[in-house]
Amino acid sequence: MQNTEDPFVKKWKKVREKGLLRHLITTGLSFGILLFVVLTAWNYFVTDQTFTTTYDFIVQLLICIVFGGGIYALITWFLNEYIYNKKTKGK
C-alpha cells in the first residue's frame, strides 16, 4: 500500500483542505462540550458540588470549550500534520 492510499492520509487530506479554523471549531467545540459534561458529572456525583449560579455554569462551559477544546484541537492539528508530512514525505 502506498502512503497516498493510507486511510489516515486520505482522511487528513480532507480535513486539512477545510483548514485550521474549521478544525478548531468542530474538534474544539465537540471536545470542549464533552470535557464540560464529564467535569460537571464528576463535580455533581463525586464531590457533591453543583453550580450555584448560571454565571458559574456559563464560565465553566466557556473555559472548557475555549481552553480545553482549543488546546486539544491545536495539539491534534499539529500532531496530525506531522504524521501526514512524514507519511507523504512533505509532498
TrEMBL record:
Keyword terms of this UniProt record: Membrane, Transmembrane, Transmembrane helix
Keyword Transmembrane: yes
Domain of life: Bacteria
Spans traversing the lipid bilayer: 20-45, 57-79
Name this protein carries in UniProt: Uncharacterized protein
Source species of the chain: Mesohalobacter halotolerans
